[in-house]
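Morning. Coffee machine broken again, so started the prediction first thing and wrote up yesterday's gels while waiting. Chain of 218 residues, entered below exactly as on the submission form.
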Amino acid sequence: MPNSDALKILFPVALEGVFDQDIQIEGELLDAAQASADRLLKEFFADTTTALIADWERTVGVSSAISGASPPAPGVGDGLLGDGLLGDGLLGDGGALAQQPPSVPMQARRTAILQQLQARGGLSKLYFIGLAAAMGVTITIDEFRPFMAGLGRAGDPIYVPEAVFCWRINVPGATCYYFCAGQSCAGEPLRWWLPQASLEAIFNRLKPAHTYVFFNYS
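Came back before lunch.
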């Protein structure tokens, strides 16, 4: 029943003329308020939110994943990882990442929020591989161990001691662009790829606090 009809029932006599018009206006305002309240009920849940999705993202800490901003990369280029940590040159240009376009579908934003709310955390490779699989991404994980007498073998890479706190996420199938004379411009990175912004943000949030994770898209 429209609120205007409900208001008319409250009066002992039928309203006519300007009084009836006033009741119609007040009823429309009450209808609008009721509709707004109904929409607000949907905002209480992450899987149906729309208007308040930015507040959900801020609350659960996935704003960086949605905006496309790459997480900071402490230790890259500042000497923390040492010159010999990655002798295979995977970081190459210092791990420069490009930003993901901001037009992320609403469904993907809701999924990122739900994953953050439902995540229990873990320390094993299988946990993080399963976490990526839930996002539709197949990965492998490499861990690094400094060369140690009695454990290392001839031909093993010699990492700095801090390498034990680093681990690499390999994301196959990504398109990688290399600096090319005649096509690239001054100031561009030696290598560039489009990162999995949501994956990186969630991994950087759930990883052990004393470790540094970086991503290989080659």
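The chain has seven helices and five strands. Going to sketch it on the whiteboard this afternoon.
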